[in-house]
Amino acid sequence: MHYIKGVGMTKFDIENRNSMDFAEDAIMLALDDSGLNIDDLDAVVVANSDNAFNPERQRHFNSFLSSFFRRRMPIIRTPAVCGGGGVALWTALRLNYNNMLILGTDRLLTAPSELVTDQILEAADRIYEQSEGMIFPAQNALVAQQHFMRYGSNSDDLALIALKNHENAFLNPKAMFYGKKVSLEKIKSSPVVASPLRLFDCSITVNGAAACVISKDKTNIKISGSGLAVDYMATFERDDMVTWTAIKNAADAAYKQANLKPKDIDLAEIHDAFTIVELVSYEDLGFAEKGHGQELIRDGTVKLDGKLPVNTSGGLKAKGHPISPTGVAQIVELTEQLRGESKERQVSNAKIGLAQNIGGAGGTVSVHIVERC
Amino acid sequence: MIMRWVCENCKRKWIYPVKKCIYCKADIKEETSRKLKVVGFTKVNVPSVMHPITPYNILILEDDNQNRIPRKTMKDYNIGDYYEEMPATKEPSVSIVKIKYDIDRAVEDALYLINDLDVDKKSKILIKPNMMAAAYPYLAVTTNPKTVSAIIKYLIKHGAKKENIVVAEQSIYAPIEAALKKTGFGLLCKEQGINFVDISKSEFVEKEFEGFKVKITKEIFDKDLIINVPVLKTHLLFGISGAFENMSRLIASDDLLKIEQLTKERKIDLNDTIVKLHKILPKYLTVGDGSIGMEGNGPLKGAPAFLSYILASKDPVAHDAVFHELGLFLRKAKYLEAASKLDLGESNIEKIEVVGNEIKATARELKPAIGSKLMENN
After folding, report:
1. Which residues on B lie below 8 Å from A146 (Cβ)?
2. Is A82 known to be catalytic?
3. CA–CA separation, B50 and B12 (whole Å)
4. Given CB atoms, is B280 within the 8 Å cutoff of chain A?
5. Architecture of the domain whose range is B93-377
6. Is the predicted pLDDT of residue A104 greater than 80, yes or no?
7. ipTM score above 0.90
8. From A143, which residue of chain B is nearest by alpha-carbon distance?
9. Contact by Cβ (8 Å): B8, B26
10. What number of C-beta contacts closer than 8 Å exist between A and B?
11. In 3D, which of A129, A197, A141 has the Cα closest to residue B68?
């Protein structure tokens, strides 16, 4: 069993610092929070994406980290595009070390949006999806369309998800949209990116880093469940475009290990790269029956004061999505919530949290459950 | 068209070719379907490097076996509509087919879409690839031998005899033996039992058009079908290197050198010369090899462009005009309009029937050939 000993993250925003600069801040915050020193670490698992437009040209990132730490301990890198942070944690939990640092750091905003969009597109199938213009908003727009047609969900439901996450981010000093009001009207009138998804259905790309220190030494937060699942890359090839099997499989593994059910979860950080992903995740994580996910946003269940608050941090939507750090930042949020440190956005009596991190359009999914003990 | 690779025994399917079933080791058969139904639709308004023209639509197409593929199009469709790519209904036509792993299938499809080739066991056929230098195929300086291999397979499947097919080319920048070895054409001809003709050692016949006198290889004048297979590239002098440029190496090498010299001395315009050359060439079919392609400082010093498409046309001007549009080049190659004026083909893109993939749904910006100081030193 591993426990969370310390967490830290930078603010997610458009600041144009290099990846290591972000990483240093997150690492030092996490180490300070843990009470450990660099010398106490036995290993590091890092998630960092290969960004061709990034001027750093620093692909051998684990060795680069060794230079930073001035240590020659094992450091491994776990790239899984947007799901890299969650995969890093999943990997670390399977290593037989006592104290480990999990780090996600990325600097994606270094070029015009056409280039960034193209860079992210590389996470899709090359021959069938990339060549046919299946940028990620398009992939998820097609999922939304299918969900709308089959289950009667609609764009208003997605707008409510966006609004909820913006309201939460408004209260989160680490969020891109901290202190920035976004109205439902603004969300609904934002330009269509890929029909039916609008700009405010899409997460915002940012730069940043997040880190956590885990240990076999007991703390008051344990990682009780950890699941990872992989699915076919091409979404069109799956049996059902609106069921993301990897989410179900990763969640099943995590619930089983934690000996918990979806109803036991007090709050969740969900990978809302697009609002429709959050909606589909309500279902595939077991919070709602298939086809009924929209009811959770309509009746307020997933709002900050609801029965199951989702994305209290603001989520990828409004806290921001810097790719690899996202999965680690979810753990930062849950840890702070379980410790009761989340101030204005504190969920009362939060004991069990779930983090779900996705790479690609459901290609790689990790689910982690953390509990206050 | 939807393609699946299916195990003949356990019926497992793949969206890409596998050599044998990875479960039961049984043979794999190809499953294709052309009549498809639209089951998903999204209009995309965000440009990206690979897809700069917006808005565009993505369809999810499904066949009777519930196999699906995404398809980019500039046209609007509704869910439930049928979608089928049909062969051209008029000339000039150009087919654009994106390669989905299988070059053989892409070439076959490109030729099907221009209403196939009329060949039989007596047809004498000459294939003219680009083998201008001794360069490895991955550099896209020369035609990809896999594209020519696909054409040969197509011809034999449609009734042609391999003994009646020749591959003909001359190498300008290297001894022919070296070029044959590096480009892969030596091995291709050996493996497929196809004769190779070194044009530089062939017999020539003198031809003339409006004062332009030149020796052309005799090889092309007794053939029933000539298939020009240029590698699609950028070109410092022409802007693009497509059907027209590739046929210039049918000229005797001493004449080629003379033309080069006169061009350097600015006594002739190369664009003019290449158009005149086409007035004395027999008609030919073009299969544009965009399996890799080149952008930047072509035809020799550019970078692989990873175009991943095949073009086919019976009109070389239309072929090159379409390639020009696909690269979103700012300046139109000068020879295109001149060639059109001399009735060599159609350069007006509006008058060309494009079949298969649409131009705007396939086009992306290719870096033009503008030269550099590095080239002067090398």
Report:
1. 40
2. yes
3. 32
4. no
5. 3-Layer(aba) Sandwich (3.40)
6. yes
7. yes
8. B40
9. yes
10. 91
11. A129
